[in-house]
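Note to self: user wants both folds in one dump. Writing first protein now.
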Amino acid sequence: MRDTRESRLLLVLLVAVAFALITVDIRGGEDSPVDGARQAASAVFGPIEDGVASAVDPVGNAVSAVRDSGERHDRLAALEKENAALEAKLGSDDRNRSRLAQLDKMLKTAGAGQYGIKGAQVIAIGAAQGFSWTVTIDVGAHDGITRDMTVLNGDGLVGRVTTVGPDTATVLLASDPDFTVGTRMESSDELGFASGQGDRPLRVELLNGKAEVKKGDRLVTFGSQADKPFVPGVPVGVVSRVDPSGGDLTRTLYVTPYVSFTKLDIVGVVVEAPKKDPRDTVLPTKPKPVPTPTVTVTVTPNANAPVEGQEEQ
């Protein structure tokens, strides 16, 4: 066919018709309304297609590419959906594993101290009290929870119950500035009072201003009368700094709490106090000290050095 204006116009027309038919055909799928027309058109336009193959093939390839691209997009979307579901499942499994680990650790802590606990989950942070360091847990009066019960987790002291609803309760965290708990030093039995300082270490005032305390010493709760609001023996934290003794009646310590108050999830409310004070038995096992390597230097005498009593030649 000669390259004339008419042939180019025919080519454009054929391409336009082809695009239109392909669009309708793709949307119709197996029940395409142009299926019969497509077969008839194939017979009519077959010879013409042979004549313009060199011009139409690039367009046909482009259309095929678009169709394949659409199919690949659909497959990609399906795979992305499957991957998202799998990641969500894995994430959920990871979270469940984390919770199981927390629960297991808490049960071991409760067992070591002989605390009867009611497991709970932190469902909210903050409360109506304002800017207090508080959390809401998913157990309440219906679960036997009452005001002034000790709250702990697998690491140690979390806080105390302050407000109780039918199915939830508010816990004042040990980090809150209004929080105070009686403490006892491990081994030395020195007594004091720990107060929260927000995101800073707890401040502890020892009753004995001359008490011998060093960094790394550990504290537990001293306990309260009738075990409310605090049961004895719950790990509180580790001494991180000791103020110099200035002859005051008390001595100030700064204690890094065992509990990370910004990562609370599974906690336990002590609903039954131990029959006897567990003392230091609930504290975690101290890590073994790492030996400091020593270097021995051996001096080798120089064979050419003069011997004492002999003159150098």
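First done. Writing the second protein, which came from a different request thread.
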Amino acid sequence: MSKEMNGRKLLLICMPIASLFFLTACAQTTQVYRSPKGYDFNKGEKLFLPDALHELSGIAFPVESSKHIFANEDENGLVYYFAPGEHQYQQIKFAKKGDYEGIAISNGYIVVLESKGTVYSFPYSDILQREATNVKVGKDLIPKAEYESLAASQSDSLLYIICKKCAVDKSSSKVTGYVLGLSKEGDFFKKGEFKIDEKQIDLISSLKGKQFRPSALTKNKRTNEWYILSSINKMLVVANEKWEVVGAFPLDPSLFNQPEAIAFDDSGSLYIGNEGGDKANKATLLKFKLN
């Protein structure tokens, strides 16, 4: 990194948002962090989320537009959706209380991942209802373990899930991922698996002797690259279509205090969501526009 870059200040730009739930705040640090191509993690917009999403665990945008953000938290079987500028959020119940993590929207369905590996789908058309109908549940499709990362590939209606902590990876330098198909009826079926090599990450940015623990996943449809977030490692990893690591970017812990959610909107802006953690803090979305 050049001396000029070392001397720059990290500035999180404040932009006004007319909403009861979205407020803005500024943060500064003297360190500059590297960013994936097309984005600048040294410039962004910070949005505070409603208290209902204090335990934020996943975000997603519909394919058609980015008017609404869909989100879930890890305690209740609810999906929330809202738009910047609105004074209210809507919610829909799809399951009883549990430990819910990633969320994705694909093939006309909203899909939610439970931490033990169970997946739920319900029709996107149900969002105007208080409770989802025709909920499909996919059990025992992947090994029981700890999962937080779920993403959809719109081109083929496939779902991708990455282990956070799986027995199969205990003595390995690789992290296992699983591919599920999603039918037009909302049913799930096994499709395959893949591996992410921690050694490839270490060559770019040191994991400091820790295992890689993914907390969220999304696909950049402009580049066909996978963006893999880790709250524990405070890192964003970028992989190509073959799951080869092509980038690894440490995250500023003062901004990314507990990064648990990631998604792109239809304009290419990257959103990273932080769980509130300590009750004194609020869950946040950090928005980085495409350069």
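Dump finished. Worth passing along: The mean pLDDT is 88.
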